User: What shape does this take?
Amino acid sequence: MPDGPDEISMNEFDEQAEELLELESDLSSMVGAEMDPNEQYESGTVLGAERVLFDAVPDTYPTTILSPHALRLDVQLSPNRNTSVYIAWPEQLTGDTSLDQLLSTVDVPAHSFADILGREIPVERDGSHYVVDLEHESLDTSATAETDVSSENSDVESLDDSGLTSPHWYYVVIACFLSWTLYFPLHQYTPIVDITILAWLVFPVGMYFDNQHVRERSTWTPNKWVWPILSLVWFLNIPAVLVYLYKRHQAEFLHTESSGRIQTAVEFLTERLRL
Assistant: This one.
């Protein structure tokens, strides 16, 4: 029997139903949308995170953001319900900031901030929005907060002093870069050639592990393989490493462990080479 004009295949029906559910999800999370009065979620899964300017926070959002930047977390409350929550992005982690409390609640150390993706975070409904429930656990005792932060800082110091993602790989990158650039004016001296070859071999190793450190500890997530590979390419590695160092300097680290030394080295290089 031929299909009638009003008949629709099951595939088309499924596609339309899926599209309607997506539109419903988008509309329900849109600013100004009226929420179901019976809707009440206590937790959600973090799908994404982004540091935004404070004026990107909706005017009707119940939590006041006083810092220049805010952390926006895209949260899935249910398979068909997503929303965004905001907390202040601090200048520095002091132990009593909203970000400190959130990381403590979900048991994610600051140096592994990317691990927050996929984690369940506590939320609560406040009017027509959801906010992070910072009172979900006993986080209001200053002694507990100070103990947690002291322990976290101790772990960070341990990471800084040793390990494959130590910030000390930054110095390896700088040393290899300087050795490589000295080759061109001093290539007639045999010791310089030997040092340059060694630097060329160590270059991608230092770049790889420093890259990993930057990915774990800062707001910049450089490609895992591109920069180490570029550091191997003759002549191209000099401008590539300069770009890497500049972007590393521009990144914001969750701790202040490397801001001063990076700034000094990069500003010196960029001033000399007028990047």
Remarks:
- The chain has two domains: 38-159, 163-273.
